[in-house]
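re: the backbone from monday

yeah here it is again, tokenized this time
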């Protein structure tokens, strides 16, 4: 296990349930479609932060790089889908991101701190799920997901560092609030399978 992945496991409140991994393996086309949506949404989030906080040079630089990388990942997922005959289609969003963002404060600087914490958690969970899935996938998809681990781990660290800068210090209390919500979203049953869903019961 790499140091970066160990850091992610230490950060997150729980591991992905085996039931979700089983869901993913049984729904690999849907997994890829939602993965593509996630990469596009991640780029959009980074760009929206750049538009809103134009006076934060560190944020501008980190989010610009992040948006480029997420769009590149989006293109790579589309390419894999194309090679497998999987059509990119609209999907209803998972409850995950909305559940986390429900706790975001309305006014700055608290709003920025919280949005950045949410970004860190989403990137960390994505990294953890790529690593959890890779051993069960075909070689091409496993290599792709393993290749994403480094960038996703860096994105998590970038978001967390920016949150601490925006807060003027540690964000432990807010982080604990969001991680508790995240654990519930990851561990409780979900109605639809998505990349960031909880486990979907059979039947």
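seq for it, each position gets an aa:
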């Amino acid at each position: 296990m790499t140091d970066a992945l160990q850091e992610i496991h230490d950060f997150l409140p729980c591991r992905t349930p085996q039931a979700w991994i089983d869901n993913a393996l049984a729904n690999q086309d849907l997994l890829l479609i939602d993965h593509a949506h996630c990469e596009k949404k991640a780029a959009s989030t980074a760009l929206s932060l750049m538009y809103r906080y134009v006076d934060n040079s560190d944020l501008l630089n980190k989010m610009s790089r992040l948006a480029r990388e997420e769009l590149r990942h989006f293109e790579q997922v589309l390419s894999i889908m194309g090679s497998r005959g999987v059509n990119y289609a609209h999907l209803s969003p998972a409850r995950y991101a909305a559940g986390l963002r429900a706790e975001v404060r309305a006014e700055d600087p608290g709003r920025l701190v919280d949005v950045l914490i949410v970004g860190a958690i989403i990137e960390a969970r994505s990294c953890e799920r790529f690593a959890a899935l890779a051993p069960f996938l075909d070689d091409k998809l496993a290599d792709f997901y393993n290749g994403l681990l480094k960038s996703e781990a860096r994105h998590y660290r970038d978001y967390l560092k920016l949150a601490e800068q925006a807060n003027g210090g540690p964000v432990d209390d807010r982080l604990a609030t969001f991680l508790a919500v995240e654990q519930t979203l990851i561990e409780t049953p979900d109605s639809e399978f998505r990349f960031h869903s909880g486990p979907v019961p059979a039947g």
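Helices lie at 3-11, 18-26, 28-52, 57-83, 95-101, 110-133, 139-167, 172-187. Residues 23-187 form a domain with the Ferritin fold (CATH 1.20.1260.10).
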